[in-house]
Amino acid sequence: MDRRWRDVGVLTGALFAANVAARLIIKLGFDGDDTAADRVSLAMFVVIGLILAVVAFRWGSRRPLSAWSADLALVVGIAMALTVLVGPLLVGDNPFGAGAGTFFAQIWLYLLATGAGILVGYLVLTALGRDYRSQQLKRYAEVKTAKPRRVVRR
Description:
The chain is an all-alpha fold. It has helices at residues 2-29, 34-62, 65-90, 100-127, 132-146.
């Protein structure tokens, strides 16, 4: 159980660190250039999606979907709250300074990027037949075919 919460905390920190790095790059390198800021933000969302795709791929092969999906939902929720509420404060901005539209757009974009990353990771895992359920079915088939046929006496 201790390792589970450590993994959740490390993953949350990694997602938040990707956001902080993108915010610092925008603030220090491209302050005022909206086109470059949009590209850096897009790159941040791609990185977050790739991180979650890799995590979904790895966790999906080791544990059933019901065991790790709740952990990823918790990670995404906490990381999103930190990204939207604490991230702007670290670079000297107000989280609600750009208006409600921008605030909720950040939330929707974050949910879209994380959902796409998790979905891609799990779909690739399932397509390769390496997910937990496929491995269970494979082991079951091997056990059933390994037993000799039972002879019926009449």
